Structures are given as structure tokens and as C-alpha cells.
Amino acid sequence: MWTQSREAARTFRRRKISSFDMPATLPLQKQRTERFTGSSPSGNSPDARVTGSFAKENREGDLQMSNRHLLVIGNGCGGTEAAFAARTSGWQGPITLLGDERFQPYHRPPLSKTYLKGEITAESLHLRGDVAYERSAITLHAGHRAQAIDRKHRKVAMSDGTEIGYDELILATGGRPRTLPVADALPQKPSNLHYLRTRTDADALRDELRPQRSVVIIGAGYIGLEVAAAAVRIGMTVTVLEAASRVLARVTAQPISEYYEAVHREAGVNILTNCMVEGLETRGDGRIEAVRCSDGTRLAADLVVVGIGLIPNSELAAAAGLEVDNGIVVDDDLRTADPHIMAVGDCVRQYSHLYDRFVRVESVPNALEQARNAAAVLCDKPTRPTGAPWFWSDQYDLSLKMVGLSEGYDRLVLRGRPEDRSFSAFYVVGDRVLAVDTINRPADFNVSKRLISERIPVTADLLAASDVSLRDLVTSTQPSIASSTART
Questions:
Q1: What SS3 class is residue 139?
Q2: How far apart are CA 81 and CA 79, in angstroms?
Q3: For a FRET experiment, which of 18, 67, 79, 418 has its CA 20 to 30 Å from that of 94?
Q4: Are residues 273 and 220 in contact, defined by beta-carbon separation less than 8 angstroms?
Q5: What is the pLDDT of residues 398-411, one digit of tens each?
Q6: Helix (H, G, I), strand (E, B) or coil at 164
Q7: How far apart are CA 304 and CA 191, in angstroms?
């Protein structure tokens, strides 16, 4: 299957004109002009909006290249990085960045951490300052939703009835929270039911986090446990419900789950595992007053937070006829089945040469890496080798950093002691490290990225030996294989 996909990708790159191009009877310049005739949200063609120092520097550049329009749909970390990386890599034409939220592009990870706790301001979330967009001649349209992609004419229809033409399109549509079925069955969404993905979500939740109130959190993943840590610290009564037999069941081994469960219980969080939510009791005004579990447990609640996973936003791609399978399927160069459309970030499913299978990774570092590589491909520049994906979660005084994907491990090796609140867990198969969880051990985390990405063989006893430097293990051993071959 993957061999066929790679051959198809090579075919895409060889083709100069595809069935999705404008009719061949039109001169090339007229083709480009007609693709830009659709009105944009501002009423101007993309060409007319290239302003600032970049436009001045490129007035004498190649007209054909300078007229090529790059449209990026999705202005989260991946989409914003793709726009700026394209400009840095040498894209000379106009770049338009679209996002359906009304805010300037911002960092999402702090929403469940420092921002939720009120430790940072909304302005500090911004990915870039206003001047950065002007200097890089990137047109930002916040609060605009893409409705449909016309691949034949290379236009995107917007929800306000306008259209935007493109030469190259990058989809960075991200994902949305998986909703709770029993909540979906209610006549209307209760005002005290919260999901956490956007700044609007975080603002609404932050307003409800107050001492002496009770919160029921459904889902004991990263989001649920981070919210629990923030809520219990301000004096709330916190109960976490998890359908699985342990917390963090999807992402960590049992010893790590048990450790985090103990930490939360010590802080005063009530955790109920193997607990299925059966219903929500509401008041006359529609607000939730209690959560009912399948075992008969009834939990009073001033507010309810749901964190049960993410659904990739791939509907736009699917409606355009692109391949979708738990995400938008792309090749090594992040191209979809259409050679003029790429995709990056949480919405993407790509073959991992490190793990020899297709994966969809929900990770900001992964989105940034894909964005930079997509920009390099567009500008015919070398790409960077794909490293192991990594993630992080801050709860209380614990900094959990994880690298790699643990599926398929047959042995767990601990380095350090959990009682010291500083240790690492290595997920091993044979002499290969697949993934590592580190708690308050940044040095182990940094070295582990190389151990995994370069498939450096190492024995379990050396991993467990705290008196043996992990860095020495890396530098004294020749890597067996790189995680992937970069594009040159």
C-alpha cells in the first residue's frame, strides 16, 4: 500500500499540468489571472495585498513566481508556521492565512495550563506580533471559515459567500474535541458544560473555576488531569471520571498511570476509574446539577468538563475528494492526492518510517516540523529528517515530557525512583527504545530523542543504571538507522 502511495507521490511531482489545472487553451498568465478573480474577504485580489518591505525587494523578481498565491487554511501553530516558513524559504508570491476564530493566532498548550490558572494574559498567547505579518507580507484573515474547495479551478468558497483563488493550498485544519454522547442528546448545550480546545473555551471555563465549587471532569487524559490540577489548587472539589481501568491509559504504561493517580489523590482529587457516564441531570434553566454513572453513582456538580479525545477536522478535504482515513492522508512530502494541496498538523495521517505504520500525531512540535518541511518542499529546498514526536504535560510540580510512540513495546524499564518525583520510563522492544516518559528529568528527555530517532541499540540494564550517563550511551554507540531520509 505504501509503495503505491510513494509512487503516486513521485508521479504528482513529475506532472507539470494536471486535470485540476485551468483549461490548457488559456495562456499561462491568463490562467493565473482568472484564478485570482474571485473576491477575497477584503474584496481585493491576493496580488494587491502584498505590501511592505518584502514587496519592495521583489518588484524586479520573476513575475510568474511572484504571482503564485499560497493559501493556508487554519491559523493554529501549524498553519501559522507554514505561512512564515514559506516566506523564509523563498516563496515570492502572496500568502494568505485563514482562521475561523476571531483571535490573532495563538498558542494552544497554555490554555489548559498557565492561561487557565490566570498566570498569563491573552496577549502573551500570540504566536507572532502584528508587525511580523506585515514584514513578511502575510495577509491574515481571522474569523473566516472555508466552506468548500474547488480543486478544478483552485478556489476556496468561504462561509460568507466569497471565494479565494490559490496556486498552492495548505490545510492545517487541526481538530475538535470529541463530544459526550449523553450531552449531545440534551435539547441544548448546558452553559456549565465545558470542552477545552480554543481560547473561547478556556475563557468560559476560567470564569467558572472558583473556590468552594464542585467540578466533575469526564476523561483522565492530559486535558482532564491538567484541569483537575488547576481546579483543586484553587480550592474546588474535584472528581475525575475515567471509563478505562486507569488514568492516562491511552498514552502511558500502568506504573506511570498509578504514579499520577497517587499524586492527584494526594492533592485531594477524587478519581473514579471503570466509570461510564450514563446521564446528566439538568435544572429548569438547563444547567447541569449532577452526573449519573452506570453503577448508580450520582455526583453533584457546579460545572462539568469533558476531555475524551480529539476528532481531526478532515471534512473539508473529504468533501473535495481527497483521501481521508482518521485524518487527511499525505505522502512523504506532505502532499495529498492533489499535487497542489498539502496538509500539516493534527489533521494529518502520514506514514512513519520510524515506526513502519501510518500515524496521526496530536503534537505542537510535530505540527511545526511538518509546517517547515511543507514550506521547504513548496520552495524546492531541502527538508529536515523527521524525528520522533514528542509531547508534554504540566501537573502540579511535575513536568511530564514524552517522546516517541510506545505501541508494540514488550518491556518497561524505569530509571530513577518515583518516590523522588524524578524518574524516566523506557518503552523497549528487544534492544530498541520506542518511547520514553520523563518526569522532571529534562536531560533524559533530550538524550532520549536521539535514542529513538536514530534507533540506537541499548540494553535494558544500561538504561536502568542511574550511574551510567545516557549521553555516554548515545555518543559511544553508532546509530543503526536514521528515522527517515530527508528530501534534498
A1: strand
A2: 5
A3: 18
A4: yes
A5: 999 999 999 999 99
A6: strand
A7: 10
pLDDT per residue over 411-455, tens digit each?
999 999 999 999 999 999 999 999 999 999 999 999 999 999 999
In this prediction, residue 480 carries a pLDDT of: 47
Which DSSP state fits 335? B
Cell numbers describing residue 174? 487541526
Helix, strand or coil for residue 395? strand
Reading the block at residue 399, the C-alpha cell is 513536568
| pLDDT above 50 (res 52) | no
Q: CA–CA distance from 91 to each of 44, 71, 75, 333, 486 (Å)?
A: 20, 12, 18, 17, 20
What sign results for the dihedral spanned by CA atoms 243, 245, 246, 249? negative
- Left, alpha or beta for 339 (phi > 0: left; psi -120 to 50: alpha)? alpha
CA atoms in the 13 A half-sphere facing the CB of 220:
27
Find out whether 71 and 96 touch, Cβ atoms under 8 Å: yes
Which H or E element spans position 460?
helix 460-464
Strands (E), 294-384: 298-300, 303-306, 310-312, 328-330, 341-343, 348-352, 357-359
Backbone angles phi and psi of 417, in degrees to 5: -120, 125
- Pairing between strand 237-241 and 390-395? unpaired
Angle at CA of residue 363, ends 277 and 189, nearest 5°: 35
R_g of the chain, CA atoms, integer Å = 24
Query: Is 149 within 8 Å of 173 (Cβ atoms)?
Result: no
Cell numbers at 192, concatenated: 456549565
**Dihedrals phi, psi of 206, to nearest 5 degrees:** -60, -35
Chain segment 10-29, per-residue pLDDT in tens: 333 333 323 333 222 222 22
Rounded to whole angstroms, what are the CA distances from 119 to 16, 76, 394? 52, 22, 14
Beta strands in 94-185 (DSSP E): 95-99, 138-142, 146-150, 155-158, 163-165, 168-171, 175-177
Query: Of 148, 152, 170, 169, which is closest to residue 160 (Cα–Cα)?
Result: 148
Has residue 386 got a pLDDT over 70? Answer: yes
Q: 294, 184 in Cβ contact below 8 A?
A: no
